[in-house]
Amino acid sequence: MTIRAVFFDAAGTLIKPVRNVGESYARIAHNYGINVAPSEISPRFRLCFAAAPPLAFPGASAGDIQVLERNWWRHLVELIFEPWGRFDGFDEYFSELFSYFAEPESWALYPEVRETLSALKERGVILGVISNFDSRLVNILEGLGTAKYFADIIISSRVGHAKPAREIFDAAVRRHGLAAQAALHVGDSSENDVRGAINAGLKGVLVDRDGDNEPTLSLRISSLKELLSFVEDEAKNSKVT
Prior knowledge:
six-stranded parallel β-sheet
């Protein structure tokens, strides 16, 4: 079937922090008298983030979402710093940290993103984002000049379901009246992006820029530019069959 829509994960697929997360946490903490090495914070971040509940709030009203998002991140940051104890000025520290990661300047696009999005758009492909992020993502993508490419930016905290739950993928294809088989989702997580997409009936593509992901039966690419030939091949095969 011809690919009519391509959905993207955000962090790790389209965008990345300008500085390592551990470095940013440590730099800002230093302003509040806490001297912890980035090399100590980074593994704590990965551990606590992986164990955190989904960033999704089923049944929450639209007006409560941003408060719930902020509280989710606050609890996560508290857990990250647990080995070093709660410190004076934590409230101010968290506010500065949360604001820092809301700024587009704190993020960078991967080099091939603009070229790939533009080329897909020219081919008439519907583009969207499916991300386990929060409401800050919209402003980040706008600031980086890429929001204009997307018909939808679907965020787990707003939808009430987080990847790999099929409901978030269902929401994406339903908005465009598409069959799931006509959509492709690409991301850097074998579980959340690839397995989640496949279980929802979409095609799943793993972007593995460093070649360090576990082997998978899905299509694996090292650059988003490789999507162009895949979409074109799918279109040709569809015409043949």
